[in-house]
UniProtKB/TrEMBL annotation:
Keyword Oxidoreductase: yes
Organism of provenance: Staphylococcus borealis
Catalysis performed (reactions): N(6)-[(R)-lipoyl]-L-lysyl-[glycine-cleavage complex H protein] + glycine + H(+) = N(6)-[(R)-S(8)-aminomethyldihydrolipoyl]-L-lysyl-[glycine-cleavage complex H protein] + CO2
UniProt xrefs under InterPro entries: GcvPA, GDC-P_N, GDC_P, PyrdxlP-dep_Trfase, PyrdxlP-dep_Trfase_major, PyrdxlP-dep_Trfase_small
Functional description taken from the UniProt entry: The glycine cleavage system catalyzes the degradation of glycine. The P protein binds the alpha-amino group of glycine through its pyridoxal phosphate cofactor; CO(2) is released and the remaining methylamine moiety is then transferred to the lipoamide cofactor of the H protein.
Taxonomic placement: Bacteria, Bacillati, Bacillota, Bacilli, Bacillales
Pfam families: GDC-P
Keywords associated with the record: Oxidoreductase
Subunit record text: The glycine cleavage system is composed of four proteins: P, T, L and H. In this organism, the P 'protein' is a heterodimer of two subunits.
Glycine cleavage system P-protein N-terminal domain: residues covered: 3-440
EC number, as in UniProt: 1.4.4.2
GO MF, one annotated term: glycine dehydrogenase (decarboxylating) activity
Keyword Oxidoreductase in record: yes
CDD domains hit by this protein: GDC-P
Descriptive protein name: Probable glycine dehydrogenase (decarboxylating) subunit 1
Length: 450
């Protein structure tokens, strides 16, 4: 049997280490804290045959709970949505899934046009002037938006709502860790929406930006018009982290005067797949165009007047400007951006609207069912997520729900101690009335059981 992987020899390793001046492989990982390093050998028999190893790994993998085996009510940033069959058919074409950096436009027109169409679709959804070619995920996109605000305004304070995804706030704090002058002010919630009175008090002339999520992490829809009024005259930027599917129904942030709109296009054609990879989007007003991180594809004409596409404004990018770059990110999620573009194109404006409406209707039907069955449901205008209080730990409820064939909602105790025993439940267009009714019934039985 031929080997599909031939490792480096010890001689190869020594030559490479000598070349870079390292004494061992372990020295290369010296910055990694020891307490998170694996301090044992992998649980694999020495010299195990590839066939038996693959069989064993597949057996382990088949224990995973998936949406194929269970009905999912889990969201919290990753959602189970309909994806047209054409998405997988198109992105499986070799010219797309093997495409890399399109630096040479003369041989990359297909990839460049696909990215250009993605940018156009994002601008239409968000009502913004310019969008980049995509970013790693929505949370990365959000952190980059905040850094742009700091650099653009030359101010050091950013006001963020605690209604933002808690992991987005964690990533932002990691980004600014090396810049001690940057201050992040977190505004409390009033129920499941931002406390607008506290937000208004937090915004002053030293504020670089105000950032909120729409709908927010707890599923409620923020009052963007009111929030924008707090910023007027303060020379601060307005950053909105938005669910792009919800924008098929809700008034887009650009219509409320947002300066930067970011998010994740996972709802369009990208499966849940255990949390990634995803595809962040980043859209701005024209005045910020030259400060946008990542890539921009522009439309042009060749010397014969034919329509063509090129990477443009590349002087912003890290690979050219190095330490003077606006961002360290100079890559994008081209394949996932393509998947989202195909999904949006296949659905069309009406299709996106229809699916958004179904999310709203299904979620609010489920919300009513929980209320009618005696649960405390937190108030807030919901798109496709809402918060329900349980009498028992959510971790235990979810274990029991899994035994009944359901993937339960997100345990909000993981995000905030204010929400112990609260579950964030997502209901998309794929959930049927029977699935919702059964889920509510089982949740009620388990919540009441001792």
């Amino acid at each position: 049997m031929s080997h599909r992987y031939i490792p480096l020899t010890e001689k190869d390793k020594k030559e490479m280490l000598d070349k870079i001046g390292a004494s061992s492989i372990n020295e290369l990982f010296g910055d990694v804290p020891e307490d998170i390093l694996l301090n044992r050998d992998l649980n694999i028999a020495s010299g195990e045959a590839e066939t038996s190893l693959l069989r064993r790994l597949n057996t382990i993998a088949n224990k995973n709970v998936t949406k194929e085996t269970h009905t999912s009510f889990l969201g919290a940033g990753v959602y189970d949505h309909y994806a047209p069959a054409v998405v997988d058919a198109m992105i499986s074409r070799s010219e797309f899934y093997t495409a890399y950096t399109p630096y040479q436009p003369e041989i990359s027109q297909g990839e460049l046009q696909a990215i250009f169409e993605f940018q156009t679709l994002i601008c239409e959804l968000t009502d913004m002037d310019v969008a980049n070619s995509s970013m790693y995920d929505g949370i990365t996109s959000f952190a980059e938006a905040c850094i742009l605000a700091f650099n653009h305004t030359k101010k050091n304070k950013i006001v963020v709502s605690k209604g933002l995804h808690y992991q987005a706030l964690q990533v932002l704090k990691t980004y600014v860790k090396v810049r001690e002058e940057f201050e992040i002010v977190e505004v409390d919630l009033d129920g499941t929406i931002t406390d607008l009175e506290k937000l208004e008090q937090a915004v002053d002339d030293e504020t670089a930006a105000v950032a909120v999520q729409y709908p927010n992490f707890y599923g409620s829809i923020e009052d963007l018009e009111k929030i924008q009024s707090f910023i007027e005259g303060k020379k601060a930027l307005f950053i909105v982290y938005a669910n792009p599917l919800a924008l098929g129904l809700l008034t887009p942030p650009g219509s409320f005067g947002a300066d930067i709109v970011v998010g994740d296009t996972q709802p369009f054609g990208i499966p849940t797949q255990f949390g990634g990879p995803h595809c962040g989007y980043f859209a701005t007003t024209k005045k910020l165009m030259r400060k946008v991180p990542g890539r921009l594809v522009g439309q042009t004409q060749d010397d014969e007047g034919n329509r063509g596409f090129v990477l443009t404004l590349q002087a912003r990018e890290q690979h050219i400007r190095r330490d003077k770059a606006t961002s360290n990110i100079c890559s994008n999620q081209a394949l996932n951006a393509l998947a989202s573009s195909i999904a949006m194109s296949a659905l069309g404006k009406q299709g996106i609207y229809d699916i958004a409406v179904q999310n709203l209707e299904h979620a609010n039907y489920a919300k009513k069912q929980f209320k009618d069955n005696g649960f405390e449901v937190l108030d807030g205008t919901s798109f496709n997520e809402f918060v329900v209080k349980f009498d028992q730990p959510i971790k235990e409820i979810n274990k029991k729900l899994a035994e009944e064939g359901f993937i339960g909602g997100f345990d909000l105790g993981e995000a905030s101690t204010d929400f112990e025993n609260h579950m964030l439940i997502a209901v998309t267009e794929l959930r049927t009335k029977d699935e919702i009714d059964t889920f509510v019934k089982k949740a009620g039985e388990l919540n009441g059981s001792k």
